[in-house]
Amino acid sequence: MTQQDPQQFTSFTQFYPYYLSEHQNLICRRLHFIGSTLILALLVYTLITEKWVLLWYVPVLGYGFAWVGHFFFEHNKPATFKYPVYSLLGDWVMFKDILLGNIKR
């Protein structure tokens, strides 16, 4: 896949193939999936217990697992640094695609 300049992404549909090209390593994708799953679990737990201070852990879980995957397994910089909004959306679309079996986990 060819990488594009930030100015060339005019939609998430254009961005998502690039995002997937930055997540080819299986361990990196698994770490993203684990982080996203933990975020969802933490959100449910926080809503049930009303311990709102726990929401501070959302970015730690999300970015922590993802960045370990990128720096140690994928060996690239997370897309978040260049495309924060599209990247966040990409995380959740990839999570859904992994859940549905459209992407190998």
Number of strands: 0
For the residues shown, what is the average pLDDT?
Answer: 92
Helix content: 55-70%
Low-confidence stretches: none
Specify the structural class.
mainly alpha
Shape: globular
What is the ordering of alpha helices and beta strands? HHHH
Euclidean distance between termini CA atoms: 20 Å
| Tally of contiguous helical segments | 4
Radius of gyration (Å): 14 Å
Chain oligomer state: single chain
* Range of strand content: under 5%
Main beta-sheet annotation: none
- Whole-number count of domains: 1
Features:
105 residues, single chain, 4 helices, mainly alpha
Report what the structure shows.
This protein is mostly helical. The chain has one domain (15-99). The protein has four helices and no strands. It is globular, with a radius of gyration of 14 Å. The model has no long low-confidence stretch (mean pLDDT 92).
Task: Characterize this entry briefly.
The protein is an all-alpha fold and 105 residues long.
Task: Note the topology.
Elements: H1 12-21, H2 26-49, H3 57-74, H4 84-99
Helix pairs in contact: 1-4, 2-3
